[in-house]
Fold this sequence. Notes:
Helix content is 10%, strand content 48%.
Amino acid sequence: MEETVNEHYRRLLQLPEPWEVTAVEEDLIRQRVAVRLAWPAGKPANCPVCGRVAGIYDRLEERSWRHLSVMQYLLELRCAVPRCEGRHWCPKQV
């Protein structure tokens, strides 16, 4: 079975479960590939500080990060980073 473009980039980026690649946008003029990442709705997360499993508290405004290039194309990751609340009730980025 052939893998989709989203699955291909998920594998290349070595994203752990349950992170998903939701879109891959190619801009030939600017020689850029934008990969949109998302944490699935309803999936709990482990607090990165205390390890407590909790629901997603909220999501930050979408950000973008420069990643290693793909061939001659600049690779940009985009994500509205989810936050969860740990034991100390202070939202932390997942």
